[in-house]
C-alpha cells in the first residue's frame, strides 16, 4: 500500500524552527513531532536557505504550491444534495430520517449520502439570514442554537469560568468571515526557547513571534511587536 505524505502544519514548522535554533538533530525533531526523519529532512532541504530554516518562509512556500481550490462542503447551499435535504426538511422530516432515506436511495454512492450530524451542521453553520431561519423552522425543536450532546457532569480538571471553543460563533467555525484568529504557544527543547503562532482562520495567514520565555508579559510583548 502506498504511503500518504502529509505536509507539516504551521505549528509543526514552528517546532522545527525552534529546535533547529537549539541545534537539535533531524532525528530529535522527528521524534518530537512523531514524524519520520525523512519527512523532516525533506522539509529542511526544500525550505532552508543558507542553512537557516524560517517557518514563515516555509509556510509561504507551501501555500504557493497548493494550487488546488479548497473543496466545498458536502452540503454547500449551492449544491444539488443540499437542495434535496432542504426539500425533505420542508416536509418536516428529521435529519435522522433524511440521512436514512439518502442511504436507502444511493447505498453505493458516498457523494450522495450524509450523516444526520452533517445535516445539523448544514442547518446551523453554513446558511445565513432567511435561509437559516427557514431550515430551523422545519425542525421539530426550533432551537436557534444547537446544544452540544451532554457527556455527563464530571467537572474534574476544568478551569473555572473557562470559555469553551465550542461556543464560538458559527461564522468563526465555518471560516467564511475573515478577521478571526487562533493562537498557540510552542516550546523548544528543554524549554530554552518559545514561538507563538497566530493563524487567521479564513486565509491561513500565519504570524510567528519568537520569545525568550513563555511568561504572559513575554507573549504579549512578542505578539505586539509583530502585529
Automatic annotation (TrEMBL):
Q: Pfam families in the record, alphabetically?
A: HTH_38
Which GO cellular component terms, listed alphabetically, does the Swiss-Prot or TrEMBL entry include?
Answer: cytosol
The regions listed as transmembrane in this protein's record are none
Where does the Transposase IS30-like HTH domain start and stop, copy by copy?
5-46
State the signal peptide span. none
GO biological process annotations for this chain's record?
DNA recombination; transposition
Look up the domain of life of the source: Bacteria
GO MF, any single term: transposase activity
Is the keyword Manganese in the record?
no
Report the source organism: Pseudoduganella aquatica
| Name of the protein | IS30 family transposase
What InterPro entries does the record point to? IS30-like_HTH, Transposase-Integrase, Transposase_IS30-like
Keyword annotations for this protein?
A: DNA recombination
Amino acid at each position: 500500500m502506498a504511503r500518504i505524505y502529509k505536509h507539516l502544519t504551521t505549528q509543526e514548522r514552528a517546532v522545527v524552527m525552534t529546535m533547529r535554533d537549539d541545534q537539535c538533530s533531524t532525528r530529535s525533531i522527528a521524534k518530537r513531532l512523531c514524524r519520520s526523519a525523512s519527512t523532516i529532512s525533506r522539509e529542511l532541504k526544500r525550505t532552508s536557505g543558507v542553512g537557516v530554516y524560517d517557518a514563515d518562509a516555509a509556510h509561504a512556500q507551501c501555500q504557493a504550491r497548493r494550487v488546488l481550490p479548497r473543496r466545498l462542503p458536502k452540503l454547500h447551499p449551492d449544491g444539488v444534495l443540499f437542495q434535496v435535504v432542504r426539500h425533505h426538511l420542508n416536509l418536516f422530516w428529521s435529519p435522522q430520517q433524511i440521512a436514512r432515506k439518502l442511504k436507502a436511495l444511493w447505498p453505493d454512492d458516498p457523494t450522495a449520502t450524509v450523516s444526520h450530524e452533517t445535516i445539523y451542521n448544514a442547518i446551523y453553520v453554513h446558511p445565513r439570514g432567511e435561509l437559516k431561519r427557514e431550515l430551523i423552522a422545519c425542525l421539530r425543536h426550533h432551537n436557534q442554537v444547537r446544544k452540544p450532546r451532554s457527556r455527563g457532569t464530571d467537572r474534574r480538571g476544568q478551569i473555572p469560568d473557562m470559555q469553551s471553543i465550542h461556543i464560538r460563533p458559527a461564522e468563526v467555525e465555518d471560516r467564511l468571515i475573515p478577521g478571526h484568529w487562533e493562537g498557540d504557544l510552542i516550546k523548544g527543547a528543554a524549554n530554552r526557547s518559545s514561538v507563538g503562532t497566530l493563524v487567521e482562520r479564513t486565509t491561513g495567514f500565519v504570524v510567528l513571534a519568537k520569545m525568550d520565555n513563555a511568561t504572559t508579559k513575554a507573549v504579549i510583548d512578542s505578539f505586539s511587536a509583530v502585529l
